[in-house]
Amino acid sequence: MTATITFRGIEFDVDYDFKPAEPMVMYYSDGSGHPGCPAEVEQINEITHKGTDFTEFLEEHEDEIAQIIYEQEHI
User: Fold this and answer.
1) Terminal alpha carbon distance of the chain
2) Which of 19, 24, 63, 66 counts the highest number of beta carbons within 10 A?
3) CA-to-CA distance for 28 and 58, rounded, in angstroms?
């Protein structure tokens, strides 16, 4: 997936992998269940600005960037 975000006043295009939420299942027919899990930006693949790759430069901010993407695109 791709998103355009603003991070620290600069627009970046971000290519990322997204994992949708899995609903909770109280009981399967065999008695087991699944607690479910929330949706999340699983991995950021590339961060660019005007065609220039900033992925390595912004690596330490990936969690913050993932949160921006999640809030902007999936809420």
Assistant:
1) 15
2) 66
3) 43
Q: Which helix (H) or strand (E) holds 16?
A: strand 10-19
Beta bridge partners of 11: 6
Quick check: 1 and 18 in contact, CB under 8 A? yes
Is this prediction's pTM over 0.90?
A: no
Q: Which two tokens stand for residue 72?
A: 């902007």
42 and 70 Cβ atoms separated by less than 8 Å: no
Chain segment 11-70, per-residue pLDDT in tens: 999 999 999 999 999 888 898 988 999 999 999 999 999 999 999 999 999 999 999 999
Beta strand 52-53 with 40-49 is antiparallel
Residue located via tokens 């693949």: 45
